[in-house]
Amino acid sequence: MHAHVAFNRRISAAYRHLGIVAPGFPPAFGPGQFVMVRPPFSIDPFLPRAFSIYRIAPPADRTAPTVEILYKVLGKGTQCLSRMEDGQEVEILGPLGNSFTLQDRVDIAVLVAGGIGVPPIAALAAALGRDRGSGTRDQGSVKGVARERGARPPSPPWHTCLPLVSCDF
Ligand SMILES: Cc1cc2nc3c(=O)[nH]c(=O)nc-3n(C[C@H](O)[C@H](O)[C@H](O)COP(=O)(O)OP(=O)(O)OC[C@H]3O[C@@H](n4cnc5c(N)ncnc54)[C@H](O)[C@@H]3O)c2cc1C
Fold first, then answer.
1. Is 7 in the same domain as 90?
2. Does 71 map to a domain?
3. Which of residues 28 and 42 earns the better pLDDT score?
4. Are strands 89-96 and 2-10 parallel, antiparallel or unpaired?
5. Across residues 97-111, what is the average pLDDT?
6. Whose CA is nearest to atom 41 of ligand 1?
7. CA distance 150 to 4
8. Pocket flag, ligand 1, residue 80 (CB < 6 Å)
9. What is the mean pLDDT of residues 47-56?
10. Does residue 59 share a domain with residue 14?
């Protein structure tokens, strides 16, 4: 699927936040699912790289959703991605893979992630908050340590979700 870069922001020395406007991409995904991404017509690197879906923003102008990933700049593929600019064409395939299985009755979910493990866990925290009325407050924060602030645990069967997202951003 041909898409284009909406933004490619630096989060820290090693990590970046990439938004890809992807026409035809499903608006929903399961936390833990991933996409394959590469610059178009790329020969080196030839193979796309896998990235967990961090979130999918609904289309502002109702044309296409924006698929967001968080990535660490390591080798050839991610160095190449880090140089991509707004509006540039990019190839994206997905959503792929399985997602987390959630038990029906979970009163408290403590989510811990670090580094490139953060995106699927942040997506899970968001899904728990959305689907189960969680008291999650800070799932949008990926910098430093994010924790629930001042939210009173709702009474069962609602769920409390404490995303402790600690990483080397
Ligand atoms: C299902 C899945 C989901 C993933 N989700 C994410 C995600 O959300 N975010 C994310 O950032 N990554 C994610 N990854 C990993 C991501 O695909 C790899 O970081 C990426 O493939 C690295 O590609 P590259 O081209 O930069 O490195 P390559 O050139 O392919 O490097 C190959 C190997 O060498 C290592 N390497 C290369 N250069 C260096 C270096 N300078 N220092 C140390 N090690 C080095 C890499 O770690 C890698 O193991 C995911 C992988 C999978 C399979």
1. yes
2. yes
3. 28
4. antiparallel
5. 84
6. 74
7. 39
8. no
9. 95
10. yes
Specify whether 9 is located in the same domain as 56: yes
Task: Tell me what pLDDT residue 149 has.
Answer: 37
Q: Assess whether 83 and 115 both reside in one domain.
A: no
Torsions phi, psi for 12 (to 5 deg): -155, -170
State the chain's mean pLDDT as an integer: 79
Ligand 1 near 78 CB (within 6 A): yes
**pLDDT score recorded for residue 132:** 58
pLDDT reported for residue 5? 96
Ligand 1 pocket: which of 49, 54, 142 to mutate (most atoms within 8 A of CB): 49
More confident residue, 136 or 145: 136
Q: Are residues 72 and 123 in the same domain?
A: no
In a domain, 64, yes or no: yes
Residues 16, 69 share a domain: yes
Range of the domain at 148: 108-165
Residues 113 and 157 in one domain: yes
Tens of pLDDT, residue by residue over 30-45, are 999 999 999 887 778 8
Q: How many domains does the chain have?
A: 2
Q: Is 54 close to ligand 1, i.e. is its CB under 6 Å away?
A: no
Give 167's contacts (C-beta < 8 A, 6+ positions apart).
113, 114, 115, 117, 118, 142
Model pTM? 0.81
